[in-house]
Specification:
single chain, about 375 residues, alpha/beta, Rossmann fold, Helicase, Ruva Protein, domain 3, two-stranded antiparallel ribbon, globular
Length: about 375
């Protein structure tokens, strides 16, 4: 893309916003302009840097994590967009390690919260304590920040804590701030929540409500590795310990990449295609397909279309393109939609998964022949 083409994309008018801006559909724009201001003429170079950073990040993370390339790609896209993601997999598949290593490679503050049935909201957000000033001897309430005050927060086994505590994450995930005792505290950017769940554990768990699931950009499925990769894990983790991963991208770079992603153009045809997939998930629609009416109780909200487009923009940039293609939308349909489609009882009893429903959707919704 030429400098002239990027010049048409524009820059945010307000150089110093005082609060987090929220899109109409609820996707948080967490990038603060005063920290990441970039002139349009620099966008081509920044796009090259973003593509290069992807390779450097995956290479460095690959020194610690064997395989899981698709998982790493989706986590990285979530970071570039500024979205939260839910990681689903059985124990022992390095869910926690992936996020921890990614935080080290990006030089971001990392915080891990082990969700348990007795965890309280204040254990996440922080609380006010009565403290005496050493000089004046005056007692006053002082706020002690909780583990939510980090750049990357790992909510480990999020479904093992009651809904009251799960809800303590909602404001942070959506608005990048927390409110304690009527006082609102802004979280440092960039801010992400990555949550993990064990799909085979049902005893003593509390399923996340649909409203909270909808705030996760992706649901990333982590499966067992191929045999050769598992052998590599065994041999490498039972030998000499590896050194800590090194940082290859700065916090400021991530913030600039997030803003650049939002300046990538998307044609109306591609945007309509993303929206048509999302609208096709709703069984109450007049043009709903028979398999949707038979298998789906509730479909996806417009936030799914927003994340399809945002993820498509990031994916295009990391592949050296400056506009979103239909293939970008199709490639991200499963992680964006699988947790937003609620299968009905009939589908569940027949073993029909949401991934299978998404497969049918991609076959049923035609790709436009032109108009990009």
């Amino acid at each position: 893309m030429t400098e002239a083409e990027y010049g048409d994309l524009g820059v945010a008018e307000d150089p110093k916003p005082t609060s987090v801006q929220t899109d109409p559909g609820g996707v948080v724009d967490s990038v603060r302009a005063e920290e990441v201001a970039v002139e349009p003429r620099d966008d081509v170079d920044l796009a090259d840097r973003m593509r290069t950073s992807r390779d450097l990040i995956l290479e460095e993370v690959g020194q610690q994590i064997v395989g899981q390339q698709e998982v790493l790609e989706q986590v990285l896209l979530s970071l570039y967009v500024g979205g939260n993601s839910l990681l689903l997999g059985v124990p022992g598949l390095a869910k926690t390690m992936i996020i921890h290593v990614m935080a080290q490679v990006l030089d971001l503050d990392f915080s891990r919260i082990q969700f348990t049935p007795d965890l309280m909201p204040s254990d996440i957000t922080g609380t006010e304590i009565l403290q005496e000033d050493a000089t004046s001897r005056v007692r006053q309430m002082v706020f002690r920040p909780g583990p939510i005050f980090a750049n990357i927060v790992l909510a480990d086994e999020i479904n093992r804590t009651p809904p009251k505590t799960q809800a303590a994450l909602l404001e942070a995930m959506q608005e990048h701030r927390v409110t304690v005792q009527g006082v609102t505290y802004q979280l440092e950017e960039p801010f992400y929540v990555f949550a993990t769940q064990n799909p085979i554990e049902l005893e003593g768990t509390y399923p996340l409500p649909e409203a909270q699931l909808d705030r996760f950009m992706f649901e990333v499925i982590i499966d067992h590795l191929p045999e050769d990769d598992e052998l590599s894990v065994v041999t490498e983790t039972t030998g000499t310990m590896k050194g800590a991963p090194k940082s290859v991208v700065s916090r400021e770079d991530i913030l600039r990449f997030q803003q650049l992603v939002r300046r990538v153009p998307v044609s109306e045809t591609v945007a309509r295609y993303a929206l048509s997939i999302v609208r096709a998930t709703r069984p109450e629609g007049s043009g709903a397909k028979d398999f949707i009416r038979d298998s789906v109780a509730y479909g996806a909200s417009v936030r799914a279309a927003q994340y399809l487009v945002l993820g498509g923009k990031a994916r295009a940039l990391t592949r050296g393109r400056f506009a979103v293609d239909f293939e970008d939308i199709r490639a991200l349909a499963h992680p964006v939609l699988r947790h937003r489609i609620l299968a009905n009882f009939q589908a569940q009893s027949e073993g029909i998964t949401t991934d299978r429903i998404v497969d049918q959707l991609l076959e049923a919704v035609p790709v436009p022949k032109s108009g990009m």
